[in-house]
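Troubleshooting: if your tokenizer reports a length mismatch, compare your output against this known-good record of 214 residues.
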Amino acid sequence: MAKYYENTTTFNYSWEQVTQCFWNRYPNPFSSHVLSEDTVCREIRNGKLYSKRLLTKTNRVPKWGERFFKAKSVNILEESVIDPKERVLVTYTRNIGFNKIMNVVEKVTYRSVPDQPGKTIATRSAWIDSSVFGFATAIRAFGLDRFKKNCMKTVDGFNYMLQHMFPPHSPSPATTAHVQHLTKTQKIKEAAKNASDHVKAQAEQLVQNLSVKG
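Known-good structure output:
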């Protein structure tokens, strides 16, 4: 029986930022296992963007697995659908070839959070299976463990690129200088007002004194 795995990740970025980053997430410091990526096709149908990409990733296996699979890399087909109206991005990935040894199918759904526009939830589901007689259970367990580790790298890499593409807002030097200028101007105006009030009080006192003498 195939192994099933599911987890949820919350990105502290808007859905628009996450979808924009999705196309630019490679390369990053956590994706050394991703060797290449190529767009096979892309088209718009019924207001939705459909894409297919081919990725090549390294495929390290333990010693006991080398008898079944000696290739150093594996091709991954990634299909995605973006629905800007519903603000949903769905991706499907699966390995091409060597499916009898280990077949991995992954689905990820990125949705905006209605009451929190600055957050996006990614729900990831995966099915890992093997048809190797006598070793299927061990291969499935190995595949699940490696998939979990790769998930952590994927999320770390995604967050890294999000921070790189959308850095936290910080005031520019020009803005800082403008604020400092306004602060100085406000202090001058306040001082002038205090001086004016002081002079006005002195004048009123002088008038009162003259009235008494008169």
